[in-house]
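Contributing new records

If you add data, match the layout below exactly. Sequence lines come first and carry their own label; structure lines follow with theirs. Keep one chain per record. Anything else will be rejected by the validation script.
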Amino acid sequence: MDFMKLLKSLEELLYELVSWLIFYPITMWRSISRPLEMMRYADMELSDRLEDQYDDTLSPPLFLLITLLIAQGISTMFPSIYDPSKTPVALTSTPNLLIGRGVVFSVFPLMMAVSLLRHRAIKLTRNSLRPPFFSQCYVAAPFALMVGLAFDLMLIPGRGEVLAGLAVLVFAIVWYAAIEVRWFRIDLQVTAARAVLLFAKAFLAALLVVLLVAIAVGWELAHWSV
């Protein structure tokens, strides 16, 4: 009986993994071509029964996580000015790198979601934070992929690809900003100027958190090496 349960679990796992080959590209295409629609879709799906949620796409956090894993795989294909042999092992470990990317790029949807709740004067709880955070993950994933590619280009030895990397980075930020400003303006029924201000404050707050995390990690690594 236990063996049959194990086989059933493996069957479900295999089906889930293989289904990503279809539903990941669909989710990515919809997130890029219809970002606001996908953000509304994320909110509505959370009201469905658990087994019916995100039936024709990937769930937002899973979509973001897979995108970060793909971005990390792409990074390994680019030559880099950094020598892995001179980098602390903690920073070259694949799981640690994925966790680091996950923390960094989860901060942006988190800050956007918190900003929305604060503006609506909604009490910040796990339940109230979940819908806006989930919806934000759909647009954070393409943003993370583009930012990762931008830094990969800028870190190629030599200076030939720096401008290309900067161009991709600027495009990523402008694309992300345009979507977020529209989201704030429509969802909160505020003026465009107010929406820009809300986005700027949330984006800068996210950058500050990422910077503090990076400083803390750097201090810890330096402390361990002593």
